[in-house]
Write a structure and sequence with these properties.
Elements (H helix, E strand, L loop, with lengths): L2 H8 L9 H10 L1 E5 L4 E3 L7 E7 L2 E6 L5 E7 L4 E2 L13 E4 L3 E7 H10 L1 H27 L2 H16 L3 E3 L4 H8 L3 H13 L3 E4 L2 E4 L2 H9 L3 H10 L1
Antiparallel strand pairs: 1-8, 2-7, 3-6, 3-8, 4-5, 4-7, 9-11, 10-11
């Protein structure tokens, strides 16, 4: 693998802090892959042959209900790993993965990587940290899907995005149809929630550009079990 790819691995959360010699060992295991938009990478229940890191583009991790409804669990961007849970737990992938946009990935075969971990314990520590962050994200998703209405889910997502982009002027990283799937709501419901928040003066919305005008109110909304009633009560004050 090229030196530039070794440098890329060293900048990922999974492999950050590894010395160059260890990164070179990791790089030797990687198999490059190219995926067109909407193409599947693996399906829930497939044999877990290894894990991936996204070099470019966006990959969605999702599950399908018995009725065929898609629930997006996580969106994976540049430098993020996916499929790594199956290295340590179970023999099959617990969810499906597909390229949301055209994407390039690096694939790491399971057996070879586990052999490397046995020789380089630092790798295991990095992976534990990454999986812990992913678990916290899943916990937030479960809370949103079970306890919050559509407006509260949207508010929580926008607050997280604001922290990630370090600005009240946000750019949605995905189309609204994909965001709706990630939040577990219909696209029409997402549109209504955005419209209500705009009409209430909480947001200014122009396509995928969103300006958070009232972050305190958005925070109240994210913490409420019924976000719409919270906005309405503020409007009446």
């Amino acid at each position: 693998m090229a030196d530039t790819d070794v440098a890329f691995l060293g900048a990922t959360l999974l492999f950050a802090g590894l010395p160059p010699a260890d990164l070179a060992e990791v790089a030797r295991l990687a198999v490059a892959g190219v995926h067109s938009a909407s193409s599947p990478i693996f399906s829930e229940g497939d044999e877990a042959r290894g894990f991936y890191i996204t070099q470019s583009g966006t990959v969605k991790i999702y599950k399908l209900s018995a009725s065929g409804r898609e629930q997006v669990i996580h969106l994976i961007g540049r430098g993020e790993a996916f499929g790594e849970v199956a290295l340590f737990a179970g023999t099959t992938y617990p969810a499906s993965a597909a390229a949301l946009t055209a994407a390039r990935t690096l694939f790491f075969p399971k057996k070879a990587f586990l052999d490397l971990i046995a020789a380089q314990p630092t790798l295991a520590l990095n992976m534990i940290g990454t999986l812990s962050l992913r678990l916290r994200g899943f916990a937030r998703l479960v809370e949103a899907l079970t306890l919050k209405d559509a407006s509260a889910r949207l508010a929580a997502y926008l607050l997280d995005l604001g922290r990630e982009q370090a600005s009240p002027r946000l750019t949605l990283p995905v189309a609204k149809a994909q965001l709706a799937a990630q939040l577990g709501i219909a696209q029409e419901t997402l549109s209504r929630s955005l419209r209500r928040l705009r009409e209430a003066g909480v947001l200014d919305v122009a396509g995928r550009k969103i300006h958070v005008l009232e972050p305190a109110r958005l925070q109240d909304l994210a913490e409420a079990a019924s976000g719409h009633r919270q906005v309405a009560s503020r409007d009446r004050q």
